[in-house]
Write a structure and sequence with these properties.
By secondary structure, the protein is an alpha+beta fold. 26% of the residues lie in helices and 23% in strands. The strands form three sheets. Strands 2-1-4-8 form a four-stranded mixed β-sheet, with no helix packed on it. A four-stranded mixed β-sheet has the order 3-10-9-6, with no helix packed on it. Strands 5-7 form a two-stranded antiparallel ribbon. The N terminus is likely disordered.
């Protein structure tokens, strides 16, 4: 029995040494990164009510993950019309400061799709009843038939990364829910 245990330990140790050698060999092939880029995160949130949203927009459109909080489809539109957009639809944080070279990681932790579209100035999106009286900004015009807008769509549970932002202020909004806004300041 002792012989079998020693054999297993020897085999395990040999396997670990072999795996370590592969890891070290792989590391030698990679370029050195003394200072890998840092990552800053923006989170997209919403509180869509699956029953009412899916009845209007199709099965599985809304996959609400909020606990005990949900906004009905008609209420979302009413609040926007009253110019009091639902605060449950938001990008967090509202202002983000980051160094040049930082990767901006945008995560959709809400229940429905959003866009993360860079705009010159904040304004309305491509669904006029959700614009709260604001004119649609040209970056959001034509909705998803505009390839530039379609490329900024983030589905539930997914994320996108933005690199190469220049120094200065960058404004991003959701072209569907235009009150979802964030200002990114690159130093």
């Amino acid at each position: 029995m002792m012989k079998t245990s020693l054999g297993k330990v020897g085999l395990l140790a040999g396997g670990l040494m072999f795996a370590g050698g592969l890891i070290l060999a792989g590391a030698a092939d990679e370029p050195e990164q003394d200072n890998p880029p840092s990552v800053a995160q923006v989170v997209a949130l919403d509180e869509c009510d699956p029953t009412t949203f899916n009845a209007m927009l199709g099965p599985d459109f809304c996959k609400n993950v909020a606990l005990g909080s949900a906004t009905k489809f008609s209420d979302l539109f009413q609040k926007a019309a009253d110019r009091k957009p639902d605060p449950g639809w938001d990008f967090e944080p509202d202002i983000l400061y980051m160094k040049k070279g930082t990767i901006l990681d945008v995560v959709d932790q809400g229940g429905e799709p959003h866009t993360f579209t860079e705009v010159v100035h904040f304004g309305g999106g491509f669904i006029p009843p959700l614009n709260g009286g604001e004119e649609t900004v040209h970056e959001c015009a034509d909705g998803f038939s505009n390839l530039a807008v379609a490329r900024t769509r983030i589905l539930q549970g997914s994320h996108t990364q933005i690199t190469g932002l220049s120094k200065g202020e960058h404004l991003f909004q959701c072209c569907i829910h235009p009150w979802m806004r964030v200002k990114v300041v690159v130093k």
